[in-house]
Design goal:
Structural class: alpha+beta
Number of helices: 3
Largest sheet: 3 strands, antiparallel
Oligomer: single chain
Order of helices and strands: EEEEEHHH
Number of strands: 5
Shape: rod-shaped
Strand content: 5-15%
Distance between the termini: 53 Å
Strand order of the largest sheet: 3-4-5
Helix content: 55-70%
Amino acid sequence: MKPSLISLRCDHCGAPIDVKPKAKFVTCGYCRASLAIHHTGSSYSTETIDELRETTEALVKDVQQIKRSTELNRLDDEWERERLRLLGTNKHGRQITSPPNTVVSTIVFAGVILFAIFWTIMASMMFAPMAFFGLIFIGFAIVGMISTHNAKGKYDAAHRRYQRERTSLIREIQGDN
C-alpha cells in the first residue's frame, strides 16, 4: 500500500513538507519558496524553482551563444567559398589568392593601349592592313580593363556585405556576454 503523504524537506529553508506521491510542485508553508518535486525511482527530492529558472536561463543563454558562434563559423565558411569563386583561377588552373588590383591593371592596360596606338600609327604608314592589329589590341585592352574593374567591384561589394553580416553577429555575441 502506497503512503498517502510523503515527508520531504524544503530545499530552501529545511522545513518539513508533506506532499502527495504524484505532486510535482509545492509551496513551502514556512518560507513560501516554490519547489519542484523530483521523483527518482523510490526516492523523492525538492529543488527551488528559482534555481531551476536560473539554470534554465543560463542554459538558454549558452545555447544562444553556441548558435551565434556556429552562425559566425557558417558565415566565414560561406565567405571563403564565395571569395575563392570570385577570384577564380589563373590560366594554369591554380587558385588566385588576391583580388584584382585596379591600379596595376589600369597601368598595364594603358601601356597596351599606348603600344597599340603606336603600332597602329607605324603600321598605317608602312603597310595599312597591319594597322588593324593595333585596333584589335586597343579593343582587347579596353575590354580587359572594364572586366577587371567589374570583377573588383563584385568582389568589393561581396566583401562589404560579408563584413556587415560578420560585424552584426559579433555585436550580438558580445551583447550576450
